[in-house]
Amino acid sequence: MIWLRKIKKLITTGYNPGEKYMAQIVRTPNMSQDELEQRIANATSMTAGDVSNALKAFAYELGMSVANGRGVVTSVGTYQVQLKVKAVSTLEEVTTDTVEKINIRFYPNKSLQKAYEKAGNHLSFVETTIEEPVPVP
Hints:
Layout: E1 2-11, E2 18-25, H1 33-43, H2 48-67, E3 72-73, E4 77-85, E5 99-108, H3 110-115, E6 123-125
Parallel strand pairs: 1-6
Antiparallel strand pairs: 1-2, 3-4, 4-5
Helix pairs in contact: 1-2
């Protein structure tokens, strides 16, 4: 179940700015690594320690691969290096200094995407008061 609340936002850009109402996800606590390890252990023949070691090895290998510019394809999706770069006017101006940020981007595969599509999820609103407008940066 994905819980939503209704909020009021002050939209300052676009075709029709002003106070608008919209749905916002109610964040629940993240699953801890210990809980994830235990749930995987319960669903497999691995111990929680085995799962922990496998996750640590996965994180290390993922880091090594993306550090070398390689994406990693898994059964749940693909991890790829993504750059935020500054555009410049000439080819000569393009240097490593024009790379502003390096991220690892996760692209879920089709079956994982289907798990959280709107049609497959149960969306429900919680009863809350509408928050005051917050300017969108």
